[in-house]
Amino acid sequence: MSKTGAELLIESLVSVGVRHLFSLSGNQILSLYDACIGRDIHIIHTRHEAAAVHMADGWGRLTEGPGVALLTAGPGHCNAISALYGALMSESPVLLLSGHAPHAQIGEGAFQEIDQVATAKPVTKAAWLAKDPSRLDETIADALSLACEGRPGPVHVSLPADILETTIASRSPQAADTDTTPTAMPPTSDLDDILGQLIQADHPLILVGPAMGRPVRWAEVERLSQATGIPALPMESPRGVNDPWLHGATNCLGRADVVLLGGKKLDFSMRFGQPPFFSEACRFIQIDADAAQLRSENPAVLPIHAEPTHILRQLTAAAQALDGSQSVRRHDSWRAEVVAARKTTPPEWEALRRSADQPIHPLRVCEALQPFLDDGAIFVSDGGEFGQWVQAGLEAEPRLINGPAGSIGSAIPMGVAAKLTCPDQPVFVFLGDGTFGYHALEFDTALRYNLPIIAIVGNDARWNAEHQLQIQNYGGDRTIGCELLPSRYDKMIEGLGGHGEFVQHPDDLTPAVERALASGLPACINVAIEAAAAPTFRANG
After folding, report:
1. Rounded to an integer, what distance in angstroms lies between the CA atom of residue 262 and that of residue 243?
2. What are phi and psi of 166, to 5 degrees?
3. Is CATH 3.40.50.300 correct for 188-343?
4. Going by C-beta distance under 8 Å and a sequence separation of 6 or more, which residues neighbour residue 227?
5. Phi first, then psi: what are they for 322, rounded to 5°?
6. Do the beta carbons of residue 130 and residue 136 sit within 8 Å?
């Protein structure tokens, strides 16, 4: 029995457990849509291509398995590039499948022909053009494996329409080749030296990148921290050392004398390891599965090319073998100090959390929402000033934030993916009014698939992050191009068929959230907030 390349591809996805395709339809992928009919795989049809990739990104982060986006060629593919960059910087396992001009017409000026591989390469781990319809199952297996292995990240495969439509002889999908080559490990003497440097340091730290901060890998980080008493912090915010979630712990970084970097580069978010954010005498041990991330001219960096979780596991075992040694637990008090600093907030916050002022301060929004997060709701947040306030003022696990890319607009589609992933848990999406405009129509997607997310929109009628930067850099009398209307976004969602609430008084926040939850519908709670600059915790600004 013969089948088409499209049928082989969909069968290969189903065979490895992929059950959702985040997609927006188009000419070159209609054969794949047809191949989904009658199979155990479901298309989540979005309103914008970037939103489909954001959803795949959210799925990948929450499940640790690959999220798969399926888009059409040319402009459809190009609409996804910024979202791929966000997934790359957040180290999220994503597979983008894009339809492509027919292989037989490449170079002839085919409809929507563009070098899609070239456009995707800078924002992916790898990108290539499929050429052999009979090997599409192997192509998919390779791409899914690559997205998840080592440092996770997005992978792209372009799929020429004629390759998908070619009829091929039937054969069973090939299982992915399993690489049994052991991960390269430093000699035992080097591991002993690394552990010795950490133990002998006065104020060692473990700082990890986005992928290492997610539950499975973070568990390894915590085991090492427990075994050695060395404090550990995730670094996933574009504001890096000034991440408001760090609270007072940001001021502990400058005291570190040895820093173990697990899947984290000394990049802009780390201020390149330079004073005053880090001590001039600080030394760094950088462990990364991606050799390209280890290139540094900084003589204070010791590069280790290996899978970070494997190294951390070895270091934990070595530290546990030393249990009882006088030196191995000498950092417990330092660890307690960093943990306390991370949890401590300024005394003046208590008054702001209970303030009855209007417009509502962002911390008053946090006060109303924290009980819902304590009950197991999922937290999704975009960037911007309101996003920074809620990231600083709310405690939640897991957290989905916009990540080191510093881009905005991902929150609503990522919230949709979160609800699809965890249907029995409430999903709260926090975003500013500027951000809301990017993908507001994904509420239509949420409605069509019965995914009742609740968006908390901090509405200050302003692009406030840029407004605050203009004030800092040019003065308050030279702000320009940041004004928005105090629009009734809640009415917009009502018009789509969802639930809307407009909140102007802080006492109305909790009842509005309760009504939104009770509605069982995708909901928008539009909150008139004070245009407050995001908090900063560095002692010297």
Report:
1. 18
2. -70, 135
3. no
4. 316, 319, 320, 323, 328
5. -95, 5
6. yes
Q: What CATH fold (topology level) applies to the domain 348-528?
A: Rossmann fold (3.40.50)
- Where exactly are the structural domains of the chain? 3-168, 188-343, 348-528
C-beta of residue 285 within 8 angstroms of C-beta of residue 302: yes
The chain-wide mean pLDDT, for the chain, equals 94
Instruction: Read off φ and ψ for residue 404, nearest 5 degrees.
Output: -60, -20
Query: Which DSSP helix (H) or strand (E) runs through 386?
Result: helix 384-393
CA nearest 537: which of 295, 281, 270, 239? 239
96 DSSP β-pair partners: 69, 156
What is the helix (H) or strand (E) element at residue 95, kind and residue range?
A: strand 94-100
The tokens describing 398, both together, are 């897991």
Are 244 and 182 contacting, i.e. CB atoms less than 8 angstroms apart? no
Quick: pLDDT tens for 424-473: 999 999 999 999 999 999 999 999 999 999 999 999 999 999 999 999 99
Are the beta carbons of 262 and 293 closer than 8 angstroms?
Answer: no
Provide the sign of the torsion angle of the four alpha carbons 77, 79, 83, 85, taken in this order.
positive
Chain centroid to Cα 199, Å, comes to: 32
User: CA gyration radius for the chain?
Assistant: 24
Whether 188-343 and 348-528 share one fold: the answer is yes
Q: CB 118: neighbour CB atoms within 10 A?
A: 9
Q: Is 122 exposed, middle or buried (0-12, 13-18, 19+ CB in 10 A)?
A: exposed
Q: Does the CA dihedral 314-316-321-326 come out positive or negative? A: positive
Which one-letter amino acid corresponds to residue 334?
W
Burial of 216 (0-12, 13-18, 19+ CB in 10 A): exposed
* CA 90 – CA 60 distance, rounded (Å): 10
The yes/no answer on whether domain 3-168 falls in CATH 3.40.50.970 is yes
Those residues whose C-beta lies under 8 Å from the C-beta of residue 297, and which sit 6 or more positions away, are none
Span 319-344, pLDDT tens digits: 998 865 656 678 999 999 999 999 99
Q: What is the pLDDT of residues 80-99, one digit of tens each?
A: 999 999 999 999 999 999 99
Tell me the three state secondary structure of residue 253. helix
Q: Cα separation of 261 and 62, whole Å?
A: 23
pTM: 0.95
